[in-house]
Specification:
Layout lengths: L1 H13 L7 E2 L2 E2 L17 H15 L5 H12 L6 H13 L3 H11 L18 H10 L7 H10 L6 H11 L8 H4 L8 H14 L8 H4 L5 H14 L1 H12 L4 H11 L8 H10 L3 H13 L3 H11 L5 H19 L9 H18 L25 H4 L39 H7 L5 H14 L1 H5 L2 H5 L4 H11 L7 H9 L4 H12 L3 H12 L5 H12 L4 H11 E4 L2 E4 L1 H13 L7 H8 L10 H12 L10 H15 L4 H19 L26 E10 L5 E6 L2 E6 L12 E6 L3 E4 L3 E4 L1 H7 L3 E3 L1
Parallel strand pairs: 7-10
Antiparallel strand pairs: 1-2, 3-4, 5-6, 5-8, 6-7, 8-11, 9-10
Helix pairs in contact: 2-3, 3-5, 4-5, 8-10, 10-12, 12-13, 12-14, 13-14, 14-16, 15-16, 16-18, 17-18, 17-19, 21-22, 26-27, 27-29, 28-29, 30-31, 34-35
C-alpha cells in the first residue's frame, strides 16, 4: 500500500517539477530530452552511460524510499563517477533519512582499497572486470610516481573506451609536454569522449602539436571536440577562433550553443559581445539563456547594460523582465569592479543612464547638421558606441584570416608525425562566377564554402548578393550575412532592410525587425513609418509601434500627427500611438514641450476655405501694395458728391446717369484711398482668400496699425485699410507696442482666412533671410 501511495505522490509531483525547483536543498532537474529531440547528440555507449548516471542521481532525490534504494544499489555496482557527481551524492547522503539508503550511498562515496600495493605492472593483460576494479582503486588526484608510470604504460595498450576515459581523467593533472606524443593517437579515436579528453590535455601542455589535426577536428560532428579545438585555435590564431566561436553561438543545435557558451568564458569577450547580445534577445533554450546572462555579468560593461535595458523596452513578456533584471545585475557588477562610481542603487543609476542616453537620441534631430557628430550615434549593427567596447571591435566576417592560420589538410596526418613534412600543393583558385552560382545551392554547406571563398577573394562581389544571404532559410548562412553586413557602412544597409521589411513573407519581415533593432535609430524610423502605412500583421505592427514609442523625437511626433490625425466636427482626432509617443517624449525632453492639444492645433492642417476668383485676389494685392500716405488726404468722396450735385442742378434729366456714376466713383474712391478717418478703426472686413498658391512675385508693402503680437513675436495682427491681416515670420519680429504704426515689406506666399484675411511670409523668409520691418 505504501508503494502505491509513494508512486501516486511521485506522479503528482511530476506535474509541478520545473527548472530550479528545490527539494530538501537539492536541485530537482526535469527529465532529460530524448536523443531524437536534441540535434547533434551522438548515441554512443559512453554518453548513454553518462545519461543513465544522471537519471540514477535524480532518482536519489525521489520522494519514494524504494526508488532511492534501487538507485543507490545500482550506483554501487560498476559506475565510475566523476567528482561533480560524487559531490551531488554526498549532499544527498547528508539529507537522506532512510538507513539502508544511507549505507549504500556511504559505500559509493568511500573509495575501495587500492594504492601501490594493489598495482600490477601488467594490469592491461587482465580481464575487463579486474582492470575496472584497479582503475577505481586509483585516486583522481595526487597520484604517486608508481601510479603515473603504470598509467603511461597502460594508456597505449587499453582498448576499452570507458577505461580509457578514466585513465585520461587521472592523467590530466600530472602529464607533461613529453607525454603529448603518446596522446596524439587518441585524437583519431572513434569515441568523442576519448578525443575530447585527450585534446584538453594536449591543449594545456603543447597546443603547437595540434596544427596538423585542427582542420579535421573542426569538422567533427561532436560539439565538444569542436569547442576543445577552438580553445587550441584561440592560442594559435585568436581572430579565427573568435569567428568560429560566433558561428557556434548561432548554431541551430542548442547543445552546441550551450557548449560554446561554456567555452566563451575563456575567450576574449570583445570578440563575441554582439553574438551574446543576439542570444539574450532571441535564445529559446533556458540553459543557454542563463549562461549568456552569466557571461555578460562576468564581463560587465556599463554601455552593454544600457543597451540591454533599452532593448528590453522594445519587447514584451518575461523576456523583457529578464533583460531588465540582467541589465541591473551587469551595472552592479560594473560598480563592484570600479568601472562605474556607485552614486546610487544600481537600478536607479541605470534608469538615469538610460534616460540620459534616450534624451540625447531624442535631441539629435534638434541639432544643427554641423554638430551631428557630437552626439554618440545609436546602435548600428556592428560598430556602435551603445554596444560594449568589445562589440565595437568585434572581428568582422570580411576580414581574412591571418597568414599563420593553418591550411585545411586533405587527410589527417598519421599519429607518429602530426605535422606534415611538406606543405600540401595549393589548389587552383576557383572561378568567381562559379562561386556566385554556388550561392544558389540548396545545400547550406555549399553556400557557406562559397561565402568564405568570396569573402577572401572578392568581397565587393559578395556584397551584391548580401540580400540573398539575409533571406536564406539556414541560420548559419543568415549569420554570415549579418557578419558581412557589419563590415559595411550602416547607411548601405537601408536597401537591404527595405527589402526585408517589405517582403510578403512574415518570416522575412521578422528578420528585418531583428536587423532594425541593431541599426541606428534615425536611419530606421523613416522606413518603419512607411511600413506602418501598410496593412500589417499584428505582431509586426505591435513591434513597430513599440519601437517608435521607445525612440521618440520631435520630428517623429510631427510625422505621426500629420499621418494619423485629422479634424472632425471642429475637433482634432488623433491615434493612441501619437499620444504614447508624446508622453514618452515629454518624459525625456529637456526643453519645454507644449501641451499635446496645442501641438495638434498647430500641426494638423485646417480644411481649405472658400477661394475667391483671381480678379478679387489681384485687387487685394494691389490694395496692400499701395503705401499709406503720411497725412490723411481730404476724402475724395466729398468732392465727388459736390460734383454730382452741380450736375443735378444743371441737368435734371440726367439724374439717373449721374446717380449711377456717383455710386461707381464712391466705390472706386473707397478702394483706392481707404475709408474716411474716424476715431476708431473701421469694422473688420471679412473676405475669403485661398490657401494656395503664391499671390505675388515682387515685394509687397503692408502699412497699418499694430493690433496684437504673439508672445514668441513670430506672428502679429495689423489693421490696414483693407482689413485685418495676421502676418507670420519664423525669424521673429522686433518688439512693438499695441497701436503703433508699422510697415512691413516682403513677398507673401499664402493668404489664409480663418475668420479674417491672413498674410504668410514664411516661405519668403526661409528663402531670403530676414524681413524688412520699419516704422
Amino acid at each position: 500500500m505504501s508503494e502505491k501511495e509513494d508512486s501516486r505522490k511521485e506522479e503528482q509531483e511530476k506535474g509541478g517539477n520545473h527548472f530550479g525547483q528545490r527539494r530538501m536543498g537539492v536541485l530537482y532537474f526535469p527529465p532529460p530530452l530524448p536523443a531524437a529531440r536534441v540535434g547533434g547528440r551522438t548515441s554512443n555507449s559512453q554518453e548513454r552511460m553518462q545519461e543513465y548516471q544522471e537519471i540514477l542521481i535524480r532518482e536519489l532525490a525521489s520522494p519514494s524510499v524504494s526508488r532511492r534504494r534501487l538507485a543507490a544499489l545500482d550506483l554501487v555496482t560498476g559506475h565510475d563517477l566523476s567528482e561533480t557527481r560524487r559531490e551531488q551524492i554526498h549532499r544527498l547522503w547528508e539529507l537522506e533519512t532512510d538507513g539502508e539508503t544511507q549505507r549504500l550511498l556511504q559505500q559509493i562515496l568511500e573509495p575501495p582499497p587500492g594504492g601501490e600495493a594493489t598495482l600490477d605492472a601488467h594490469a592491461w593483460e587482465k580481464g575487463r572486470a579486474d582492470r575496472w576494479n584497479l582503475l577505481r582503486g586509483l585516486p583522481q588526484q595526487g597520484l604517486g610516481p608508481a601510479e603515473q608510470s603504470l598509467i603511461r604504460d597502460w594508456l597505449p595498450r587499453e582498448q576499452d573506451p570507458q577505461i580509457l576515459c578514466g585513465l585520461l581523467e587521472r592523467a590530466r593533472g600530472w602529464t607533461e609536454k613529453t607525454d603529448v606524443p603518446g596522446l596524439l593517437p587518441f585524437l583519431n579515436h572513434p569515441w568523442n569522449a576519448v578525443r575530447s579528453l585527450a585534446l584538453g590535455i594536449i591543449i594545456a601542455k603543447d597546443p603547437q602539436s595540434l596544427i596538423g589535426y585542427l582542420p579535421e577536428m573542426l569538422k567533427s560532428p561532436d560539439p565538444r571536440v569542436r569547442l576543445e579545438t577552438l580553445k587550441a585555435l584561440e592560442r594559435l590564431v585568436p581572430e579565427e577562433a573568435g569567428r568560429l566561436l560566433r558561428e557556434s553561438l548561432a548554431s541551430d543545435n542548442p547543445e552546441e550553443r550551450i557548449m560554446a557558451l561554456h567555452t566563451a568564458f575563456t575567450f576574449d569577450f570583445n570578440q563575441i559581445a554582439l553574438a551574446v547580445l543576439r542570444l539574450l534577445l532571441y535564445e529559446t533554450d533556458r540553459e543557454a539563456l542563463e549562461l549568456a546572462g552569466l557571461l555578460a555579468i562576468t564581463n560587465p560593461d556599463p554601455e552593454m547594460a544600457i543597451q540591454i535595458c533599452m532593448l528590453a523596452t522594445r519587447i514584451r513578456g518575461n523576456r523583457a523582465t529578464f533583460l531588465q533584471d540582467l541589465a541591473v545585475s551587469i551595472l552592479k557588477a560594473a560598480q563592484l569592479a570600479g568601472l562605474v562610481p556607485p552614486e546610487r542603487s544600481p537600478a536607479e543609476q541605470l534608469d538615469g543612464m538610460v534616460r540620459d542616453k534616450q534624451r540625447r537620441l531624442a535631441e539629435r534631430g534638434r541639432q544643427p547638421p554641423g554638430e551631428e557628430g557630437a552626439v554618440a550615434p545609436g546602435p548600428p549593427p556592428a560598430t556602435a558606441p551603445s554596444t560594449p567596447t568589445g562589440a565595437a571591435t568585434a572581428t568582422p566576417a570580411s576580414s581574412p584570416a591571418p597568414s599563420s592560420s593553418p591550411a585545411p589538410a586533405s587527410s589527417p596526418a598519421p599519429a607518429s608525425s602530426p605535422a606534415p613534412s611538406a606543405p600540401p600543393r595549393p589548389s587552383p583558385a576557383p572561378d568567381p562566377d562559379s562561386l556566385v552560382r554556388k550561392l544558389d545551392s540548396t545545400n547550406p554547406e555549399t553556400v557557406i564554402e562559397a561565402v568564405e571563398e568570396l569573402r577572401k577573394r572578392n568581397q565587393e562581389l559578395l556584397l551584391l548578393h548580401l540580400q540573398k544571404l539575409l533571406r536564406h532559410d539556414d541560420a548559419r548562412v543568415r549569420l554570415r550575412g549579418l557578419m558581412l553586413a557589419e563590415s559595411i557602412d550602416p547607411r548601405d544597409l537601408l536597401r537591404e532592410l527595405r527589402l526585408l521589411l517589405f517582403a510578403p513573407e512574415l518570416r522575412m519581415q521578422q528578420e528585418g525587425m531583428k536587423l532594425a533593432f541593431l541599426m541606428e535609430t534615425e536611419l530606421v524610423v523613416p522606413l518603419l513609418l512607411e511600413k506602418l502605412d501598410q496593412k500589417l500583421h499584428k505582431e509586426i505592427r505591435e513591434t513597430i509601434e513599440l519601437f517608435l514609442v521607445n525612440n521618440p523625437s520631435s520630428a517623429l511626433l510631427n510625422e505621426l500627427i500629420l499621418k494619423q490625425s485629422h479634424r472632425q466636427d471642429g475637433k482634432i482626432v488623433t491615434s493612441e500611438l501619437v499620444k504614447s509617443v508624446y508622453e514618452s517624449l515629454r518624459l525625456l525632453a529637456t526643453f519645454p514641450l507644449l501641451p499635446l492639444p496645442e501641438i495638434l492645433e498647430a500641426v494638423v492642417p485646417r480644411p481649405p476655405a472658400a477661394q475667391p476668383g483671381v480678379e478679387s485676389l489681384a485687387k487685394i494685392v494691389k490694395t496692400i501694395n499701395r503705401p499709406a500716405p503720411a497725412t490723411a488726404p481730404e476724402p475724395a468722396w466729398k468732392e465727388v458728391a459736390l460734383a454730382a450735385g452741380a450736375v443735378l442742378v444743371q441737368n435734371a434729366r440726367s439724374i439717373g446717369v449721374v446717380l449711377a456714376a456717383t455710386i461707381f466713383l464712391l466705390l472706386i474712391g473707397r478702394l483706392m484711398f481707404g475709408a474716411a478717418p474716424t476715431d476708431h478703426p473701421p469694422a473688420q472686413v471679412r473676405m475669403a482668400a485661398p490657401v494656395e498658391p503664391a499671390i505675388a512675385t515682387g515685394p509687397v508693402e503692408v502699412s497699418g496699425t499694430l493690433l496684437s503680437m504673439a508672445k514668441d513675436r513670430k506672428s502679429l495682427v495689423v489693421q490696414t485699410g483693407a482689413g485685418k491681416f495676421r502676418i507670420m515670420c519664423p525669424g521673429g519680429f522686433p518688439p512693438r507696442k499695441k497701436g503703433e504704426p508699422v510697415r512691413l515689406v516682403g513677398t507673401p506666399c499664402k493668404v489664409k482666412v480663418y475668420g479674417v484675411p491672413m498674410l504668410d511670409f514664411q516661405r519668403w523668409i526661409e528663402a531670403s533671410g530676414t524681413a524688412a520691418f520699419e516704422r
